[in-house]
Amino acid sequence: MKHNIRYAAGSDVGRRREQNEDSGYASGRLLVVADGMGGHAAGELASSAAIAVMREMDATLPETGADLEAALEAAIAEAGRRLVELADIDPARRGMGTTVTAMLFDGYRFALAHLGDSRGYLLRDGALYQMTKDHTLVQSMVDEGRITEDQAAVHPRRSMVLRVLGSEGRAEPDMALREAEPDDRYLLCSDGLTAVLGPEMLHEVLTTVADPVVAVQRLIDLANEGGSPDNVTVIVADVVAPGAGDVAVYRVGAGA
Fold first, then answer.
1. Mean per-residue pLDDT for 60-88?
2. d(C-alpha 191, C-alpha 132), whole Å
3. Alpha-carbon gap, residue 211 to 236, rounded angstroms
4. Sheet harboring 4-12: ordered strands across?
5. Using an 8 Å Cβ cutoff, are 108 and 78 in contact?
6. What is residue 61's DSSP assignment?
7. Segment 155-188, tens digit of pLDDT
8. What Enzyme Commission number(s) apply to this enzyme (predicted)?
């Protein structure tokens, strides 16, 4: 049976930044978080440019029969091309980039695309799974057995990202296609959330707060209470039966 998603999205500047370089977008079939980097407002430009392409794709993609993975890959490639153009216009923007974590839904399946250290999680049958792998230096060190997960969490270079969508050429996203099941709950977030809240706290909020709007606000509040060192962007989406309706809530900085 075809399903809908009920969703909420929010973004906050956090406790230590002066501007929000995150962007996010959520609709009845597309969820995206982008965390920009580059300085001189280039990070904000990079993330908003990526989101603009995603919104265009959402507006023009056919309602049925679309190749979900191909559509996401094409949108990310187009976003990369636009970042190159923006850097060509202003050399000060060279080196700017953005993470992209996106899910595209057709009522039965999600395509997942991922670049960087924003994350996607799935809550299913009470268990929380991280669907994405961080493209960071410390994650590569964990994969190689050089440090533990606990050491990675406090490593001084834990924020160094190795693969993003940038102005210096195309980066290949991790791609996956996943079946959606009734009562699944998805969380997409920038690292401003996960730098403060561990899996146990994410699990607690996602399992005890039923309303996506309230869950988004609770996660942002907890991150800020923990002194989040970065901007915080959160999307929570539930797979629901047709007719259950959707919800979209944006705070300052969410969307582009």
1. 94
2. 12
3. 9
4. 4-12, 232-240, 185-189, 119-124, 127-130
5. no
6. S
7. 666 667 888 998 776 689 999 999 999 999 999 9
8. 3.1.3.16
